[in-house]
Design a protein that fits this description.
It is found in: Cytoplasm. By secondary structure, the chain is of the alpha/beta class. It contains eleven helices and eight strands. The radius of gyration is 20 Å and the shape is globular. It binds 3-methyl-2-oxobutanoic acid and sodium ion.
Length: about 260
């Protein structure tokens, strides 16, 4: 088996095929999704909130993303692995972006990188693509800018919609092979999807996108507390794990684990 490539992703849009993407931050979880046929796995900087215990994605470092991305690559055989460039690793300009992306490609082995920003990031995208590194763009709500924009729906109103369309065209013109649309009105996401020839990957962007992405801990019910409205919970792993931990604790305290069958002589 060979890995899915960005070429396969391009062909999927030409064929009108939709595809799913999930995040993963470790080898074992990634191997489950890979074996389940998820074609694209994103090592998102949502690892900040979902894996590393930060409040936002802002503190995540390139060292952390490199380590997590390498684990996901090692745990998978077929999926295209996309590594997120964290805040501060590409904003200085194209050269910094290339240096950072090169680490994810060479040290972690990712097949593509993702970065946030439309028009504001087009020079970074262009240099990476010219250098042979496929780039997934990310527009609409961009969580690394939480301190400036908060977590609000993006592209509401005529002016904001026009800006989102300009951002979408800018990343396509710069050579991105796909673009994430986060928390964008469904009608606007549908229009972007029609206008672009590269696939749109929606999260909170309605049903018309070419692909969808969810954060795995949200999708599987492991995240504690509330999850955004756009999440569909396919399992309740928090409940499953909590029940198992309690049962184990009871067994140990009550002397019913380990038993003879778990012992060696
Ligand atoms: O970090 C992440 O998980 C993401 C997706 C939500 C697109 O950027
Ligand atoms: Na991200």
């Amino acid at each position: 088996t060979r890995r899915i490539t960005v070429r396969d992703i391009t062909l999927a849009k030409e064929r009108g095929e939709k595809w799913p993407m999930l995040t993963a931050y470790d080898a074992m979880t990634a191997s489950v999704f890979d074996e389940s046929g998820i074609p694209v796995i994103l090592v998102g900087d949502s690892a900040g909130n979902c894996h590393l215990g930060y409040e936002t994605t802002v503190p995540v470092t390139l060292d952390e993303m490199t380590m997590l991305s390498a684990a996901v690559v090692r745990g998978t055989r077929r999926a295209l692995i996309v590594g997120d460039l964290p805040f501060g690793s590409y904003q200085e300009g194209p050269v910094q972006a290339l240096r950072s992306a090169t680490r994810l490609v060479k040290e972690a082995g990712v097949g593509a990188v993702k970065l946030e920003g439309g028009e504001r990031s087009h020079e970074q995208i262009r240099l990476l693509v010219e250098s042979g590194i496929p780039v997934m763009a990310h527009i609409g709500l961009t969580p690394q800018s939480v301190n400036a924009m908060g977590y609000r729906v993006q592209g509401r109103g005529e002016e904001a919609a026009q800006q989102l369309l300009r951002d979408a065209k800018a990343v396509q013109d710069a050579g991105a092979f796909a673009v994430v649309l986060e928390l964008v009105p469904a009608e606007l996401a549908a229009e972007v999807t029609r206008v672009l020839h590269i696939p749109t990957v929606g999260i909170g962007a309605g049903p018309e996108c070419d692909a969808q992405v969810l954060v795995w801990t949200d999708m599987l019910g492991l995240t504690s507390g509330r999850v955004p409205k756009f999440v569909k919970k396919y399992a309740d792993l928090r409940e499953v794990m909590s029940n198992a931990a309690k049962a184990y604790a009871e067994d140990v305290v009550g002397g019913t684990f380990p038993l003879e069958e778990h012992s060696v002589h």
